[in-house]
Amino acid sequence: MNRHHDRCDACGAQAFVKVINADDLELLFCGHHFSKNEQVLFSQGFLVDEDERDQVNVKPSISASAQ
To answer: 0.85 exceeded by the pTM?
Structure first.
């Protein structure tokens, strides 16, 4: 996952978790929104494809609103 360009589908913040389902639907989440929605995602058949939450605050990302 290219964390500098991939944004959370819920809020536009830097994405650290990518989930996929059997239909290859891919969703990206910041750490907060993944944690908030984790149980619902798993109950709907999503699996974690990439989890880079260990990189939160290691290097700041470019702002979602940066030009």
So the answer is: no
